[in-house]
Amino acid sequence: MRQTIEKIALKNQRAADTICLIAVSKTQPVALLETAALQGQRDFAENYIKEALPKIEALKKYPLIWHFIGSIQSNKAKDIAQHFDWVHSVDREKIAKLLNDHRPTTMPPLNVCIEINVGNEATKSGVAPSEAAMLAEKISHLPRLKLRGLMALPPPSNDLNTQKNYFKQVFSVFETLRRLGYHLDTLSMGTSQDYPAAIAEGATHVRIGTALFGSRS
Ligand SMILES: *Cc1c(COP(=O)(O)O)cnc(C)c1O
After folding, report:
1. pLDDT at residue 120 in the model
2. pLDDT digit string (tens) for 175-192?
3. Of ligand 1's atoms, which has the minimum distance to the CA of residue 216?
4. Helices assigned H by DSSP within the chain
5. Measured from the CB, is residue 210 less than 6 Å from ligand 1?
6. How much is the pTM?
7. Residues 6+ away with beta carbon under 8 Å from 176
8. Which of 61, 99, 182, 202 has its CA 20 to 30 A from that of 173?
9. CA angle 97-99-100, nearest 5°?
10. Whose CA is nearest to atom 8 of ligand 1?
């Protein structure tokens, strides 16, 4: 996967080390994560807090970076703030405040991304592109959070240009926020289905599950 990402990066005149491979390990057993960790994989992402906590505990002897990418219920914010390095799926002020309030002072500020609902899908979380600046402003006042960028999970499509168009929209929100003065360095976009398009459109973090670990049961 790293070699594939490297090839795609070169094809798009990008340096491969500007693209972080996040291994999405939801539903996969700890032993498989450990195999990846032993091969040098550092970044892992989980969607469900109850599933993630025992995995984080079991693998704590490895220097891993944990990313939360699932939807966030208020009563889960505390565990997320205490056990993760990143949260990609912040989409409302209330959750941002809870994450901020529960982030231990012994830990560095929690890295967060605003999730953008780029396909305007009723079933998906994320803010509309037009609402991102307002949420960024709210987050910027929360000292225990560090706003790093944007995350998106566009509607599935098999068409490269359709995929690219969604990612272009996310990139344009990213540029707008940067023009407003936010120091963002993270575009978390691209899954097993569409990471080549995401890399072509500027992704800095791709979130790959099935293409690394096989299908989920
Ligand atoms: C599950 C998931 C992924 C990984 O999807 P794959 O198709 O398995 O690569 C990426 N991002 C989010 C938000 C997910 O929930």
Report:
1. 86
2. 999 999 999 999 999 999
3. 8
4. 2-11, 30-38, 49-58, 77-83, 93-102, 132-140, 160-179, 195-200, 210-213
5. yes
6. 0.97
7. 132, 133
8. 99
9. 60
10. 209
